[in-house]
Specification:
With about 500 residues, the chain is of the alpha/beta class. It contains 14 helices and 28 strands. A hairpin with a 6-residue loop joins strand 13 and strand 14 (about 250). Helix 2 (about 50-60) runs antiparallel to helix 8 (about 290-305) and helix 9 (about 330-345) packs across helix 14. Belongs to the 5'-nucleotidase family.
């Protein structure tokens, strides 16, 4: 009698062990207070918080779905919305967001403001390597630097770390009192170990907040991370496995122009498959009506209160596109670097792709449009490089292709073979571009210019410039130069170049 009972029990248990379940993760990141739909990738009316909330609420209503954020919900200075309304949107996501990563810009207004924002949110904010005065992680859920959610019989663990770039960008006075950064890799190792060995989760998800190259390095250094919801780099990356790892990665660009949607397929407790991709939030997506009305009301008040930010700088007959900023010359980058090159009197000018956060639309361009596309304040830096040093600088930029550290440029021309620049040419006469260019001579000296962030902060570039001669931070304001170009109407928007008036 015992043997048939054993067989029957095994047969009853077999289907349960083989049950397939799907958990869906829908993610946003790097919103940066872009509440109002904006110009992006050559099209107006993209994104907008009302459109995002409509999609996220619909997603949240579906079974076994979790909604997450990679952080950077604020952005001091740009857009004006952020300075005027702060984190007014945080409670709008209550009941929608399950968890949020701390981003560097979430601390833009200091620790007191951050704590007020956090108090308005019903969802936790995480960062495993921000340590409090007591030596424990400052941001915790029930005493732990991670969140475990059980849906559909599956346990999913979420955590966040601040990468080196984020740590460098946050001012010390903006950190909560008594806190300090710890090593991101060590923190991730401890969290993943706890999630796997103590919490017995079925999947581990990293929400952010660090550069893509740091995400890739972390995935190689810390086995056991199933998915990284990319953030901070503002890159648009479809779902795929990171090279040399078993970790899946995707990144939904910026400002809610896209969301991430990933479906995790489990057989029993085993993660068996991952699929999904990016969801474009364009005009075909509906808006949440109540949110849209509130955004419209607040925006009308903002325009009335800060009219100088909505002043028209100029008019473009065609847009200056931002397509391909990290992969090659983009119209907005070509235009800006040429304006800056001429002002600096340089043979060549270089600016990180991260200096640009969008293109400029056709028609009237306001101050707010301009700052949305080129938000960061910089001054021009000039230096003298030998031809060999200039070639090394261009090679460094090419090695960064596909990332925010790739340079937009003006004054040089080259081709790429096997990932390296070849046949490098530079302007003969910086004051007369019409004179054409010539091959770079290794022993010759060239006047090269860049923005002060790239010159003195950006990894690799600051070291390269430290070996240059006559490095000088000028008083030439990058924003002022471009705004004056727009006011003068000296933009050939079809090519991104300048024309004489």
């Amino acid at each position: 009698m015992k043997k048939p009972l054993t067989v029957l029990t095994s047969l009853l248990l077999l289907p349960a062990c083989q049950t397939t379940r799907t958990v869906t993760l829908v993610g946003m990141t790097d919103y940066h207070s872009h509440a109002v739909p904006f110009y992006s990738e050559g099209a107006p009316g993209q994104g907008g918080v009302a459109r995002a909330l409509a999609y996220l609420r619909d997603a949240k209503a579906r079974p076994d779905t979790l909604v997450v954020s990679g952080g950077d919900t604020l952005n001091k200075g740009v857009p004006t919305w952020s300075d005027e309304y702060g984190c007014v949107e945080w409670p709008w996501f209550n009941g929608v967001l399950d968890v949020m990563a701390l981003g560097n810009h979430d601390l833009d207004y200091g620790p007191e403001s951050f704590e007020r924002c956090r108090a308005s949110a019903a969802y936790p904010v995480l960062c495993a390597n921000l340590e409090g005065a007591d030596g424990a992680p400052y941001l915790r859920v029930e005493g732990k630097p991670y969140l475990v959610k059980e849906v559909g019989g599956v346990r999913v663990g979420f955590f966040s770390v601040a990468g080196l770039d984020m740590q460098r960008l946050v001012k010390a006075e903006h950190l909560p009192a008594g806190t300090r950064w710890t090593d991101a890799t060590e923190a991730a190792q401890a969290v993943v170990r706890a999630l796997r060995d103590e919490e017995h989760v079925d999947a581990v998800v990293l929400l952010g907040h660090q550069l893509r190259e740091d995400d890739e390095a972390l995935a190689r250094a810390v086995p056991g991370i199933d998915i990284i919801m990319g953030s901070h780099s503002h890159q648009k990356v479809e779902l795929g496995v990171l090279p040399g790892t078993s970790t899946w990665y995707l990144s939904p660009y910026q400002y809610l122009a896209y969301l991430s949607e990933v479906r995790l397929r489990f057989r029993g407790k085993r993660l068996e498959g991952v699929e999904g991709g990016l969801v474009k939030l364009d005009g075909t997506r509906r808006e949440d009506e109540e949110t849209a009305a509130e955004v419209a009301r607040l925006q009308r008040d903002l325009v009335a209160k800060r009219p100088e930010r909505f002043e028209v700088l100029g008019r473009l007959d065609k847009p200056l596109g931002d397509e391909g900023l990290t992969e090659g010359p983009a119209e907005v980058g070509t235009w800006a670097t040429e304006v800056w090159r001429r002002a600096a009197g340089a043979h060549a000018f270089f600016a990180l792709s991260a200096s640009f956060r969008g293109g400029l639309p056709a028609g009237e361009v306001t101050v707010e449009d301009f700052l949305g596309a080129i938000p960061y304040r910089n001054f021009l830096v000039t230096a003298e490089l030998t031809g060999a040093q200039l070639a090394d600088w261009v090679a460094l930029s090419e090695s960064k292709r596909g990332t925010d550290s790739y340079s937009q440029y003006s004054g040089v021309h080259y081709e790429v073979e096997d990932g390296r620049p070849v046949r490098l040419r530079v302007l003969k006469d910086p004051t007369n571009p019409a004179a054409g260019d010539e091959p770079v001579t290794p022993e010759a000296t060239y006047r090269v210019a860049t923005l002060d962030f790239q010159a003195f902060v950006a990894t690799g570039y600051k070291d390269a410039l430290s070996r240059a001669a006559n490095v000088r931070r000028t008083e030439l304001n990058a924003h002022t130069l471009l705004m004056d170009s727009l006011r003068q109407g000296a933009v050939n928007s079809a090519s991104g170049q300048l024309h004489s008036k």
